Amino acid sequence: MLYIGEVLGLGPVQQVRLSYEGQDIPARAFAGRPGTLAWQADSWSGSSRMTLCEAIREIVEDMAHRPAADLAATRAMILSRAAARVAACDAVPAELRSATGADSVEALQVETPHAGFFRTRGYHLRHPRFDGTTSPVLHREVFVATDAALVLPYDPLRDRLLLIEQFRMGPYGRGDPRPWMLEPVAGRIDAGETPEETALRECREEARLDLRGLEKISTHYCTPGYSTEVFHLFLGLCDLPDVAQGQGGLETENEDIRSHVIDFHRAMALLHSGEANNGPLVLSLIWLERERARLRASA
């Protein structure tokens, strides 16, 4: 319990005595709370409790071979991954696809090849096949990610939008000669946050921008073949400045972000030329092209 309390940042431990059914019971009390999670009694009975239980489950897996201080340094990621697993329980409909449940998959062995700021899981499993038989034992690995919120800021009155640009490891690791990428504002959903709250926060942090409304575009898996990551994609309604370029990002996270304010037709040119080669940006621009007349009419 002391190890878990240190990882979760629950503060100093106090020795207390509790009275239960007429008996004095020694106990330890932690002064803090786990990250940004709500810690009121009514919250404890809901998703916060489930998220904390998921986080503790991950901590217990690692406690035998990692110092508490190492895990504490990744506390925000642990809690965000836990929140994503809780959010995954709200499944979307299965009207065309198979409604076969995850409980029909037989996990014979589960391991964690890498556990750090990022995490991977390895599975030896069998699953039902469409012909009614069972698959052979398969070995699959998955990148265990957090959920993220992404938002494309758009000014319908001036018909302009904001893109951010930053160095990205994915293109660099692939060997792309130009690893700086144009994309929507984006960020990890912290435990205790809704996707909408994250979208608003990230716009303030990355673009110094306050939104006046959000339009939902989609919630989708990014690369379901090997990653758990889910994107919550929005269009953010706002008043955009006349400044063509700006700087943003948090120094504490070593973010070096440049913002671009461009008109709708310039954005479409980026889409058609292929310079807009970030999946969420492509999807957002296609959605905006479809909804632009409605948004402008109500501006």
Automatic annotation (TrEMBL):
GO-annotated biological processes: nucleoside phosphate metabolic process; ribose phosphate metabolic process
Cofactor or coenzyme needed: Mg(2+)
Molecular function GO terms recorded: ADP-ribose diphosphatase activity; ADP-sugar diphosphatase activity; metal ion binding
Cross-referenced Gene3D superfamilies: Nucleoside Triphosphate Pyrophosphohydrolase
Record carries keyword Methyltransferase: no
Any one Pfam family match given in the protein's UniProt record, by short name: NUDIX
Catalytic reaction list: ADP-D-ribose + H2O = D-ribose 5-phosphate + AMP + 2 H(+)
Enzyme class: hydrolase
Motif Nudix box: positions: 187-209
Function description: Acts on ADP-mannose and ADP-glucose as well as ADP-ribose. Prevents glycogen biosynthesis. The reaction catalyzed by this enzyme is a limiting step of the gluconeogenic process.
Protein name: ADP-ribose pyrophosphatase
Gene symbol of the encoding locus: nudF
